[in-house]
Design goal:
The complex is a heterodimer of chains A (about 220) and B (about 260). Helix content of chain A is about 80%, strand content about 0%. By secondary structure, chain A is mostly helical. Chain A contains ten helices and no strands. With about 260 residues, chain B is mainly alpha-helical. Chain B has one domain. In chain B, α3 packs across α6, α4 packs parallel to α6 and α5 packs antiparallel against α6. Chain B is elongated, with a radius of gyration of 23 Å. The N and C termini of chain B lie far apart (about 60 Å). Classes of the chains: A mainly alpha (about 220), B mainly alpha (about 260). Chains A and B meet through α8, α9 and α10 of A and α5 and α6 of B.
Chain lengths: ~220, ~260
């Protein structure tokens, strides 16, 4: 098995074992969505109108909160130093780690979305649209969040700072994700245009994320 | 001084903090006087010479603070981006000092822009705040500034902090235009750009000239404050290294005393 494949499998295994917290993200997603009706009231019409927004906020927070351990565990046990010294480019290492992170925390969110959409009384087309936008959008959140995780890797309490640094940068993803999801259910608004822009953003973050995160890791380990 | 020596005084020489401080001391007083004059002239023209707007009355005069502050808030970020390149690419020793000094200034100017904007918005739009594209992107810019300042304060070693902030600044420089575009797409109420358009300024000279004078004055003010903050930062770092040196000496002194006791 190639080194990158081994790294991918290792990260996946670590995340599903005890202390890995892979399903914690979904649980957090569930509780955030459950909490919203208590704040805005149980009116199903209102909930179906703001449902996509609630799901997106929940997924955004769940993704970001699970990111602070992305590099920190490796930094603590010295794996990160070996990865830095290894022959593979650090950008690729970051990308592989992000992929494993997304499979273990992002993908479960996408799978849980149709079920949670039912709670929020979103109609079938809307459910498909929200799921599709989250499928495309959550990788972008993980990738840009990796930059924050790399910047705060040497801090003992980086989680809150990570969110402060990264949340402003996720605004475009949020805007186009929610407007594509809403566009599918409300008539004059389009679904395609914001969805394609969302895809474009994900591709852009695919480039920025690993490059910036690798630069941050290098400067932190000097 | 021979010709080669005169010629060799380049940007590179400013990398020496002592020379940079000496240069700052020389230009600071003239720069300060120039700033005060420009601000005085600009404020006089804005408050007394420029006419009231036919719709907005005298509230339009808020513009002479509001618009230059907005420009400077964006200028400060550009300054920080150049400094970030200086830190990461050219490894210029003063680049992260410049970036660190510019961040609070950018935050302050965007704060001034937002507060004057809401004072202007209250009589004009009837509300302190609207979730309009320009206001929202300025608010996000303020939050990004505050996040960068928080990162500066989170990492103890100034060199590591400088690199981390530089990386985030560059990422922000790529993404901020996208944020701006997406927020524009999301909602728009604020009037579009009036001064920098393809057809030239859409504003009468009686208002445009005071505005440009104020913009110049604000730029000078930024420069003065930036230089002052850079000087403070250099001195602060010197104090830090002196303290560490003193602590090291005390520690090694203790160790020497302890070993001499042990030998006896």
């Amino acid at each position: 098995m190639s080194a990158m494949g081994a790294l991918f499998v290792r990260d996946l295994k670590l995340s599903v074992r005890i202390g890995g917290g892979a399903l914690m993200g979904v649980l957090f997603f569930l509780i955030v969505v459950t909490i919203f009706p208590f704040a805005v009231g149980p009116d199903l019409n209102l909930l179906s109108r703001i449902g996509p927004a609630i799901l997106w906020i929940g997924a955004l927070l769940a993704t970001l909160l699970s990111l602070d351990r992305l590099f920190q565990a490796d930094q603590e046990d010295g794996t990160l130093d070996l990865l830095l010294l290894g022959e593979h480019p650090l950008e690729l290492v970051v990308l592989v780690k992000c992929a494993a992170q997304w499979i273990s925390t992002g993908l479960p969110l996408v799978i849980a979305t149709p079920l949670l959409s039912l709670f929020l009384n979103i109609e079938p087309v809307g459910i498909a649209a929200v799921t599709a936008t989250l499928m495309v959008g959550t990788p972008a959140l993980t990738l840009i969040g990796a930059v924050g995780a790399a910047l705060t890797v040497i801090l003992r309490r980086g989680g809150l700072l990570l969110s402060i640094l990264i949340l402003p940068l996720t605004i475009p993803v949020l805007i186009f994700g929610v407007s594509a999801a809403l566009g599918a259910v409300t008539d004059p608004a389009p679904f395609d245009t914001p969805f394609y822009i969302l895809c474009g953003l994900s591709l852009l973050y695919l480039v920025i994320g690993p490059v910036a995160a690798a630069a941050a890791l290098r400067s932190a380990q000097e | 001084m021979t010709e080669t020596e005169t010629k060799s005084f380049q940007i590179r020489d400013l990398a020496n903090p002592t020379r940079f401080l000496a240069l700052l001391d020389k230009i600071m007083l003239p720069l300060l006087i120039l700033t005060i004059i420009a601000l005085g002239v600009g404020l006089y023209m804005a408050l007394f010479v420029s006419p009231d707007d036919y719709q907005q009355g005298s509230t339009v005069k808020i513009m002479y603070i509001h618009v230059p502050a907005a420009w400077l808030a964006m200028f400060a970020y550009t300054m920080m981006t150049v400094s970030a390149l200086g830190t990461l690419v050219w490894k210029h020793p003063l680049a992260d000092v410049s970036a660190k000094a510019a961040a609070p200034l950018g935050a302050a100017f965007s704060f001034v822009c937002l507060t004057t904007g809401s004072f202007w918005g209250k009589p004009m739009w009837g509300t302190w705040w609207v979730w309009d594209a320009r206001l929202t992107s300025m608010l996000i810019l303020l939050i990004i500034y505050l996040g960068l300042i928080a990162l500066w304060h989170a990492i103890e070693d100034p060199l590591k902090a400088g690199k981390a902030v530089a990386i985030l600044t560059l990422v922000g420089f790529i993404i901020i235009p996208i944020i701006k575009f997406s927020v524009d797409w999301w909602s728009t109420l604020h009037q579009p750009a009036t001064v920098f358009t393809l057809d030239g300024p859409k504003m009468d000279n009686s208002m445009l000239i005071p505005l440009l004078v104020m913009a110049g004055a604000f730029t000078l003010l930024f420069t003065v404050l930036h230089f002052k903050a850079m000087k403070n930062e250099i001195l602060r770092r010197r104090i830090r290294s002196m303290q560490m040196q003193a602590a090291r000496q005390v520690a090694s002194g203790n160790r020497a005393a302890a070993s001499s006791v042990a030998q006896r």
